[in-house]
Specification:
The chain has about 260 residues and is of the alpha/beta class. It has nine helices and nine strands. It has a six-stranded parallel beta sheet with strand order 3-2-1-7-8-9, with helices on both faces. It has a three-stranded antiparallel beta sheet with strand order 5-4-6, covered by helices on one side. Helix 1 crosses helix 9 and helix 4 packs parallel to helix 9.
């Protein structure tokens, strides 16, 4: 394991345009629940599909009730050491993009710049109209729903929904294109805290690897990319215990050991 950690530091140090791909495993330390794990949210609550949300008042109520249940947790969650390490890498000029599956908004809270951040599955940080696309702050809408039990509407009459990608809803083309462009430019891909099982998101780090970049996976437990010939380095364990120390060592060596 020590040799693998040293190899990770070396890869981070040599990179000047890395792609960081993040999943739920980096945010559990901030109190954000895992949706697909053994104790995940989807084990006790079925998701509302987008087409049902758009055609059924009952489905909209169910979706808003589910989102209300977790809203305070998302609102109050704080970035952890992994989010902060990613910001330090960006500030050092070593990051081409942070592509995340997470909807918790913690990368933005930590200070990741909008220009570098691609939230492929959207974000709980805003409410979005499904007709005009206007985005607003979530607090007042959740308070209104909690009081009235009526899903809120936009001024234009459109249905309002947290700005996440629901089941059955297409990813935004512009987000996918930004992620793919970054992957093709990257000189290193690092997947953090993801089982790499949800597509098309999980093809992004593979695209970087197939474009010639070394590919590192850090995750506790198996991933769907384990054993692939594109994988340069695989570390099994808690991302928060493995990645931030490697970043500190990388940046220390970049500064000449000071």
């Amino acid at each position: 394991m020590q040799a693998d950690r040293e190899k990770l530091v070396k890869l981070l140090s040599e990179s000047k345009s890395m792609l960081l791909f993040t999943g739920a495993g980096i945010s559990t330390g901030s109190g954000i629940p895992d949706f697909r794990g053994p104790e995940g949210v989807w084990k006790r609550r079925q998701p509302v599909y987008y087409h049902d949300f758009m055609r059924s008042e009952a489905a909209r109520i169910e979706h808003w009730d589910f989102k209300l249940e977790g809203w305070a947790g998302y609102r109050d969650a704080k970035p952890n050491a992994t989010h902060e390490a990613i910001v330090r890498l960006e500030q050092a000029g070593k990051v081409v993009a942070i592509v995340t599956q997470n909807i918790d908004g913690l990368h933005a809270k930590a200070g990741t710049s909008p220009e570098k951040l691609v939230e492929l599955h959207g974000t709980n940080s805003f409410i979005e109209c499904q007709i005009c696309g206007k985005r607003t702050e979530p607090g007042p809408h959740f308070e209104e729903f909690a009081r009235t039990r009526k899903p809120p509407l936009c001024e234009c009459g459109g249905f309002l929904k947290p700005a996440t990608i629901s089941f059955g809803q297409n990813l935004r083309n512009e987000d996918v294109e930004r992620a793919e462009r970054a992957a093709k430019r990257a000189d290193l891909a690092v997947a953090l805290g993801s089982t790499l099982s949800v597509y098309p998101a999980a093809h992004i780090p593979l695209l970087a690897a197939r474009s010639g970049a070394p590919y590192v996976i850090i995750n506790r437990g198996e991933t769907d990319h384990d054993g692939m010939e594109e994988v340069t380095l695989r570390l099994d364990g808690d991302v928060a215990e493995l990645f931030p120390p490697a970043v500190r060592e990388c940046l220390k060596s970049d500064r000449g050991g000071t």
